Amino acid sequence: MLNGLKILEFEALGPAPFAAMHLADLGAEVTVIHRAAPDNPAKQGENLLDRGKRSIVLDLKDSGDLEVAKALIARSDALLEGFRPGVMERLGLGPEAAHALNPALVYGRMTGWGQTGPRAHQAGHDLNYLGLSGALFYGGLPGAAPGVPPTLLGDIGGGALYLTIGVLSGVLRARQTGKGCVVDAAIVDGASHMMSLLLSMGPQFSRMARGQSLLDGPHWSRCYECACGGSVAVQCLEPKFYAVFLERMGLAEDPLFAQQYDPAQWPAQTAALARFFAEKSRARWEALFAGSDACVAPVLSPAEAMTDAHMTARGTWGAGAPVAAPRFDGVVTEPGPIPRRNADGPEIRAELQREGLL
């Protein structure tokens, strides 16, 4: 889908490499500039987020290697970096310098706090950005501290995916106008933007009270532990699905569950369901709800998800890692191999020389 699109990535942590991998999965030619010595020794070898990319190791404080980086900028459609504000400028590779080399370049910047604001130069991580954005507020049950799956909501959802769509939007405009742009992708912005769906659900969320909204308080919107120690995820929001859920549970005539949307009833309803689910194993519940619209699914570990019948049928996992997503009609997106650091360095330098850029 993205064949012919040239992306230059400067090695960073988390969201920016993920965004670059996503673009590579979809066919873009991604060249990553790796450091000679990674911050994390565990990344000295192969790194899943580098799949499908070409690798060159450069010391950006070395004048010769800096010229190689500039040559790569000159021939790229987009650049991705994930440093704190000011780092690329100090290297002489900030947006102004980059656009002097390549006016049509889309300059993608990935940070947690953004390029501006009082926190712009502070350190932070996924949970910090989610906390400030308001997106973490509903991430847990009443009476418990909020929590969400690591990296998924902030680094990836509010960060990498917004950087990806921002860069692609910039490329579309650059191809029409010949003028590049700077994409300021901040996790606090993306995570806040993602809350639009929740806020669109009306007064249940405008109250801003944990445990009283349609998705974090009801007995039909939470996980329950089973007799085996596993869990099931229940979220039968609409009345027609709630009716199927009660029927499968044998509770269709139970007056306790008659009022689906009454917050005053939710604690008692939740306690009752917790007792019921604790009586049987996850496998038994999975079999009971199989093929129904009750909106109940098992909570699987990644290892279990790899062998699940539905996930296997779709081929969602391959060789111990998720395959490319999304899918396109008539197009096969096969993730490329994971390069070792500097595996393509000599070839890339030779290409730049042939193109007259070095």
The computed structural class is alpha/beta
Terminal CA distance? 30 Å
Low-confidence stretches are none
Order of helices and strands: EHEEHEHHEHHEHHHEEHHHEHHEEH
Range of strand content: 5-15%
Helix content: 25-40%
Tell me the strand order in the biggest sheet.
Answer: 3-2-1-4-5-6
Average pLDDT value? 93
Instruction: Give a count of the beta strands, DSSP E runs of length 2 or more.
Output: 11
Please report the number of helical segments.
15
Please state the overall shape, judged from the principal axes of the Cα atoms.
elongated
- Largest sheet report: 6 strands, parallel
Question: What Rg is obtained from the alpha carbons, in whole angstroms?
Answer: 24 Å
Outline the structure in words:
This protein has 358 residues and is α/β, with parallel strands linked by helices. Helices cover 38% and strands 14% of the residues. The protein contains 15 helices and eleven strands. The strands form three sheets. A six-stranded parallel β-sheet has the order 3-2-1-4-5-6, sandwiched between helices. Strands 7-8-9 form a three-stranded antiparallel β-sheet, with helices on one face. Strand 7 and strand 8 form a beta hairpin. Helix 1 packs across helix 6, helix 5 packs across helix 7 and helix 6 crosses helix 7. The model has no long low-confidence stretch (mean pLDDT 93).
